[in-house]
Amino acid sequence: ELTASAQRGINPRRIPIEVVRPGTRLPESPREERQARGRAALGLEDGHFVAAQVARLAPGKGHPTFLAAARSLCNARADVRIVIAGAALFDGEAGYTEALRRQAADLGIADRVLFVGGEVDASLVLGAADVAVHVPEGLESYGLAVVEAMAAGAAVVAADAGAVREMVVPGVTAVLVMAALPEDGKES
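Above: the chain's sequence. Below: its structure in token form.
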């Protein structure tokens, strides 16, 4: 199991590891109600096709890959809106949001990308989404965003790497795409 393996690699005292997956609350209201509520909260129209990513705004979380793919989606469909939810939390991430805004502008899709920050309830974003995207660079020991997106009823597109393979049934509960490697070319 990748999660346990990743933790063993950073466990200097070699204490035995047991993985306890975090609980995810399942929605109580029907998908249609959650979608309408989420879209209203985000200022999105019912007719939009919404692709969303919920992740800390930090290098390695795959936002540039998501925006590059979103350009193709925006070119194919006039009704597409892209939602990026999350905030830069640590030193060294301060300019990351502005870099993503510049990328969206350079790609010609800035008018279709909505940055909602980290204060918005992720369940509203995932409720609004037709598809949730999780494409970090390299490996993550656990992709909570994937579990939350599946619980919210959004279609999932995720990088075929790390623990995601242990969480989904490819082609059934998620579409898996090739994972991007960090700029140094090594999996983390």
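The helical segments are 2-9, 31-42, 63-76, 96-106, 122-128, 144-152, 164-167.
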